[in-house]
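# step 3/5: fold
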Amino acid sequence: MFKQKRLFSLFSLCILTTSLVSGCLKNDNETIALPEIGTAASVIPPEIRDEFESQMEIYDGTNPPDISGSFVIAPERLYYATDRDKAPTSTADQYIAFYNKKGNTYEFQSKQAGSRSYSPNVIVIGSGNNFTAYFTERTDYEGEDSWLIRSTLISGTITSRGIENIKYAFIALDVYDPEDHIM
């Protein structure tokens, strides 16, 4: 777990969106296993969920759509951050994949300009074509001895063309960044 004091010192909430997500991401063996996560409540504390809900749609429901697949978020734009001075307004395209579906859980990988993220346990809620995915992911940075663990939400609507109205939000839980490159 993380300490409340540390959470607020590392707190970084970013919401990134695009109108359509499609594309592909090849799976590789460069993943890092994290401990399993029990429920959505154990991923996002109520006070943090309240912060997310004020910035993005969080879809509830027990019959979410199948979100298996690989997608590219392009362009990726920042709409909100608690530390606006350090946050870029747009970033490189991000490739994401949800795979290995078991019930309403998946594994997740992403790749973006020199970083790779992985989560072994993504919990998905929602109904119809609308979903919200909750998970904790670890991001490692290529060529650097730095990593970031963050609690993440991704919400959107699955269509035949990909994920529309995607919102990608995260809160930094722990960071190792001796060169101060991440935050």
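# step 4/5: annotate
Confidence is low (pLDDT under 50) at residues 1-40.
# step 5/5: archive (pending)
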